[in-house]
Design brief:
The chain has 284 residues and is of the alpha+beta class. It is built from twelve helices and twelve strands. 37% of the residues lie in helices and 16% in strands.
């Protein structure tokens, strides 16, 4: 079996069979459905562009390997990124779709209890690649990973959704989230390695080609769904969104018995919830 296929199959098998992907606190149904897995060239110029687009401190894959293993960024012959998205299950999406002002209990449980599964999946793939004799690291688990609130906006030095875009897994929405072939209600994750892997090219140079609003102006359902007023035709006001989730929704945490609730109303009850709406409507 090809190494790339082995990695893809291993991620999918882990998601499909690992008990940590079960919402045992609720009803023993899955947290996530089967993932989509693709690979990016760690030297793709877009990773350098992210230092301007996102933040000057955003790391390139070479910098990730260098920081992780105490090496010079130019030491590595190959640098690849394994990126995957995990779709939130229909049961959870449906529960949130019915909500108007606050997220559903299942959505809150997903946000709170997904951590152990995500951590275990990352560790599984790092171990798989390491056992082949290559270097591998999950940037989100690295000690240098930083996610800080600056002037009301959350800034990180490794953006999983931008990495997934680089790997051709989707394009951005009016909300700033990634619209994949499995929709927008997803979780993104990644591993960086010096294993050479086949690159999945981006199918479009337009970073918004899966969003109906940017394609033809026909959709602003996410704006209507946003309970905080953080969304408009100009995009997402991250400070308003952050304040709503981390101030207004704090009492809901006690009601649900969770550490965090998220919101996700803009990711559910919208045409891009579980599919690429542009492809579905034949706009491509």
């Amino acid at each position: 079996m090809e190494v790339a296929q082995l990695i893809q199959d291993s991620i999918k098998e882990f998601a499909n069979t690992n008990p940590l992907n079960i919402m045992s606190q609720v009803d023993n149904h899955r947290i996530y459905d089967g993932p989509l897995v693709q690979f990016a060239d760690g030297d793709d110029p877009i990773f350098t562009e992210y230092k301007t687009i996102i933040d000057s401190r955003h790391l390139t894959p070479r910098e990730v390997l260098a920081k992780s293993f105490g090496r010079n960024p130019h030491d590595f012959l190959n640098v690849s990124v394994i990126s995957w998205i995990l779709p939130i299950t229909s049961r959870t999406r449906e529960s949130n779709r019915r909500r108007k002002q606050t997220p559903s209990r299942r959505w809150g449980y997903t946000r709170t209890y997904r951590g152990l599964f995500l951590k275990a999946l990352r560790e599984c793939i790092v171990e798989l690649v390491s056992d082949m004799g290559y270097l591998a690291v999950a940037p989100l688990a690295a000690p240098y990973y930083k996610k800080n609130l600056e002037e009301g906006v959350m800034v990180s030095n490794w953006s999983e959704r931008h990495v997934a875009y680089a790997a051709g897994l989707g394009t951005f929405s009016l909300t700033g989230a990634l619209i994949t072939e499995k929709g927008m209600a997803v979780r993104c994750d990644s591993i960086v390695t010096d294993l050479a892997l086949p690159v999945n090219p981006r199918t479009t140079q337009d970073p918004f080609s899966n969003c109906l609003f940017y394609v033809n102006g026909s959709c602003k359902v996410c704006v209507q769904r946003c309970p905080s007023g953080a969304l408009s035709e100009k995009g997402l006001n991250k400070k308003i969104c952050w304040d709503y989730i981390n101030i207004n929704l704090v009492p809901l945490r006690e009601v649900y018995g969770v550490e965090r609730t998220g919101c996700g109303l803009c990711q559910t009850g919208v045409p891009c919830e579980f599919r690429n709406p542009v492809r579905n409507k034949g706009c491509m």
